[in-house]
Amino acid sequence: xxxxxxxTVQPTVTGGHVVSIEADISRGLHAFSIVGLAGKxxxxxxxxxxxxxxxxxxxAPKSQNHKIVISLAPADLKKEGPSFxxxxxxxxxxxxxxxxxxxxxxxxxxxxxxxxxxxPVRGVINMVTAAKAAGFSEVFVPVENAQExxxxxxxxxxxxxxxxxxVNHINVKSPAxxxxxxxxxxxxxxxxxxxxxxxxxxxxxxxxxxxLLIAAAGRHNVIMVGPPGTGKTMLARAFQSILPPLSRDEAxxxxxxxxxxxxxxxxxxxxxxxxxxxxxxSHTALVGGGTNPRPGxxxxxxxxxxxxxxxxxxxxxxxxxxxxxxEDRVVSISRVQGTAIFPADVILVAAMNPYRGSxxxxxxxxxxxxxxxxxxxxxxxxxxxxxxxxxxxxxYETLTEKVRNNHETKExxxxxxxxxxxxxxxxxxxxxRTNASMTSRDIEDTISLSPEVETLLKSSAAKLNxxxxxxxxxxxxxxxxxxIEGSEIITKAHLxxxxxxxVRLSI
Length: 507
What we know:
This protein is an alpha/beta fold. The protein folds into 2 domains: about 5-170, Ribosomal Protein S5, domain 2, CATH 3.30.230; about 200-430, P-loop containing nucleotide triphosphate hydrolases (Rossmann fold, 3-Layer(aba) Sandwich). The chain is built from 21 helices and 16 strands. Strand 8 (about 140), helix 5 and strand 9 (about 155-160) form a beta-alpha-beta unit. Helix 2 (about 45-55) packs across helix 3.
């Protein structure tokens, strides 16, 4: 009997690690061992694959006086999950010389039922991405995962319903060999997101709508402040409808995160994520973590929106944990086993009501913020907010108006699309696509300020006591406004409008 060698992938949030599976069979009392830092699910696979092999028509491992050793390499990499079932079963059959396979570079993925049927697994997109990067040409997955896997170009995907189907495809000595058909490349719907709430459904709040348009164009962080019932949540929902669809690469990155997190519905979409964690969400649920770190809400919102209603009601530890993702666009989680880095390029949209005891909105915003929330939100978090929006009460006359602009969302989309195109053209050589992602060096190299604007900027920074971070964020917002207006330079009007969205707080 010979040593069998097959390959699979241990998925991660951003891809995966190729794992070599080697099987050796020798005569002796029955023993079945799996070595190479195998997790509990893989250890339990011995019974699953034994039953699956038996019901497929081959000798079950437990029926033979064989000593079976299966090694998972690299040995120092932790292996987890039921996706190893299929390659483990195939490696046993090859080592037993029940089947013979050619040298085609293949990856096998799938959980086995006791009757040999293949069940879907999480993280398939991640596995296919890693397989392609490692030079493999074919990937075998459960049929339910085939469409998801086929969104990766340049690699053949075969969806199978059971173990027997895979064997009949790869076994060169099968008398009834049947070839599977490769899954066609999955297409992505690149249309804009239509939500239940659109801009035209919101009466009044023109200033807030304008600020959201700016935020969508430059991917700026937003906080909405106002009394209860003034439309903050509706504005956040409408914000989703004016976000441009994701590019194919962005959509695949989002799909990889959702797949590894166990989400199986609507994976292949260009619709930007919109996550709305409750204010009682734990620190781990929000930013990720655990013994074996898993992504949290901020990572699941990657390339989309993290909407945090009643922002100050979140645990302060959780709010402060947003410092890194809002600045660096990643979440770094350190544990004894190592450090996990999760992507977290999000637009933060927060809403809060500081008007306690004065719900008519007459209270001074800055003073209310200082008095009500000075112990809840730290200065560094406030410093990372680009746009502060007041959402006051709407008059009865405005609320009952019958006339409305039914093309408001369409017009906003057109302006945002044009602004994004200008940003992409200006920043194409710097590896970024929007103004919010610019560093101080990017600002110096790509943005020119007239003497008039520089003078205004200097006086404003001194008057508002802006930190260097706030100073640069102010320039970014002004540049986004200029992009919306189709201007090649930042004018005084653009900077004055950007200044309107800042609140002076000494918290």
